[in-house]
Design goal:
alpha+beta; 20% strand
Length: 94
């Protein structure tokens, strides 16, 4: 969102969004046992895959927190008028 030249923010608008929170299951234990370089490489790869998936489905990453990610899917940006949730993918849902 760009600010108007007046410097005054527009009034807030109500919108339906989907918020995705994701983190690595068992990361605390994993981080205690794993080699730091290997752990960082694995985590970077995992977060990169998640970011790619978020962008591919019209969302944006709001923040990273440790091994987690928070992403927003705004219905106004979706071609179908809905959020791009996909169920039943065992690779990402385990």
């Amino acid at each position: 969102m760009s600010l108007p030249k007046t410097g005054i923010l527009p009034a807030p608008q109500e919108a339906e969004v989907c918020v995705l929170f994701s983190d690595v299951r068992g990361f605390t234990q994993l981080s205690q046992d794993a080699d730091p370089k290997s752990l960082f490489a694995s985590l970077s790869h995992n977060l990169g895959l998640q970011v790619d998936a978020v962008y591919r489905h019209g969302g944006y990453v709001d923040k990273f927190a440790g091994d987690g990610i928070m992403a927003i899917f705004d219905e106004q940006k979706q071609n179908s008028g809905g959020v791009p949730l996909r169920a039943g993918n065992p690779r990402t849902n385990e």
